[in-house]
Specification:
about 0% strand, about 75% helix, two-stranded antiparallel ribbon, Growth Hormone, Chain: A, mainly alpha, 2 strands
């Protein structure tokens, strides 16, 4: 029999949180999967770079749109229902994408996938707040990113190999079945708070109570009264956008065309970028917790990422070992964006944390949502007519023109972080 005065045993928070993290991992997998299927998708649907960028970005359109409603529902409805519903929607979208006869159906499938997995991050943050001590929040947020990027890495070389052997449609069909299994597991195991299993919560009782729906819109307006909400919601778009635009879509064709690498070897390099991104999150998040400061590490990471992207994209013909090292440095430095979730959470009262997390995550997704199709449009405008096996081939100058948008985003991120107000790792308590 559970004792209400005691915190849950160690395995239980990790089990609950782990299932949410597993669903979040599938979201990252779907986010970057088009990168290693670009040639197959462009040939199968007879599309160019602009349409390909739009197909990939349909995931981000719905992901972006769902963030603020997700933040509100996470505060008023609870993460269990959000995660379960999201997993079922993502599963349905994956099945539709796998069976798409035309690009319109494929776009609709990607739209459903993005909307479904879009609830995972904010719900996972809420589970962290309720099931773990506050001092672990930034560290757990970094670990969540690590889970996500494991999913992204699985959408690199392993996915490319499976696509080459079985075709992209059967692989996506199996992916949908896995999402269905995760949805069922979440419904059976996950609970919003330890008190629902008879244990003591890590959130004071006053903050466990779900607020009435009548207050949610005023809470949404209230989070925008805080300066850090604006700055910390826009800035990470300029960090995450380049990482996902490169690793999630345009990196593989760029490396294959201009460094003569096979698609598999190109996927290895984009996966290396994501792996470093995943490691940077928990390491820098833990360092931020330890020194009790948010701004310095976040700012340093943003400037280093900006410098690294400039070297990668505008200095041609790096030796492969140097190119790999630069991608690892950029990825690790970009992981500093994970500090922003603890930073923005501490910048508002506790009752608004779910809402502000949704606002912040929506801001982050504007980066890849805008960059991927915009870069595709620039590539198509710069295309000189060369095609191989029904796929358009773009020259180095075209990629440099498109990638200049990534540099602009990186510069914007660094500038905005300069204007944030340090929280000292202390939660704001006024209302």
């Amino acid at each position: 029999m559970n004792e209400p005065g005691k915190y849950p045993p160690l395995y239980l928070p990790w089990l609950v949180w782990g299932l949410g993290a597993l669903f979040y991992m599938t979201g990252f997998y779907h986010r970057v999967a088009p990168a290693v299927m670009t040639d197959s998708l462009m040939a199968d649907f007879a599309i160019g770079a602009a349409a390909m960028g739009n197909l990939s970005a349909f995931y981000f359109y719905s992901y972006f749109a769902i963030q603020i409603p997700t933040g509100i529902l996470a505060d008023s409805w609870g993460p269990k229902k959000l995660l379960t519903a999201g997993a079922f929607i993502a599963c349905s979208g994956t099945f539709l994408f796998a069976a798409s006869p035309t690009i319109a159906f494929a776009n609709a499938g990607r739209l459903m996938i993005g909307g479904g997995v879009g609830v995972a991050w904010v719900a996972l943050l809420k589970l962290s707040m309720h099931w773990f001590p506050p001092r672990r929040f930034a560290t757990n947020t970094g670990l969540a990113l690590l889970f996500g990027v494991v999913g992204a890495v699985s959408a690199g070389v392993p996915l490319r190999i499976m696509v080459e052997y079985f075709g992209w449609r059967p692989v996506m069909l199996v992916s949908g079945c896995l999402s269905l299994a995760i949805a069922l597991a979440i419904w059976i195991v996950v609970r919003d708070d330890p008190s629902e299993r008879g244990y003591k919560s890590f959130i004071p009782p006053a903050n466990v109570v779900k607020e009435a729906p009548a207050s949610v819109f005023s809470r949404l307006l209230n989070v925008f009264r805080y300066k850090n909400t604006w700055l910390l919601s826009i800035a990470p778009a300029g960090i995450v956008g380049p990482v996902l635009a490169f690793s999630g879509l345009w990196g593989v064709p760029f490396l294959s065309t201009h460094y003569g690498l096979s698609p598999v070897r190109s996927a290895v390099l984009t996966s290396a970028l994501l792996t470093a991104f995943a490691l940077g999150g928990p390491v820098l998040g833990a360092m931020s917790d330890r020194i009790c400061l948010r701004k310095p590490l976040y700012l340093a990471g943003s400037f280093l990422a900006c410098a690294g992207w400039s070297m990668i994209l505008f200095v041609p013909d790096w030796p492969i070992w140097m190119l790999t090292l630069l991608l690892l440095i950029v990825g690790f430095a970009s992981g500093a964006m994970i500090i922003g979730f603890a930073f923005v959470k501490e910048s508002v009262p506790p009752s608004m944390t779910g809402t502000v997390s949704g606002v912040c995550n929506a801001g982050i997704m504007t980066g890849p949502m805008l960059l991927q199709p915009a870069m595709g449009w620039i590539l198509d405008r710069s295309w000189d007519g060369v095609m191989i096996s029904g796929v358009k081939i773009y020259q180095l100058e075209a990629y440099q023109s498109a990638f200049s948008l990534m540099i602009a985003g990186s510069i914007l991120a660094a500038v905005l972080i300069c204007f944030t107000t340090e929280t000292g790792c202390r939660q704001r308590m006024d209302r």
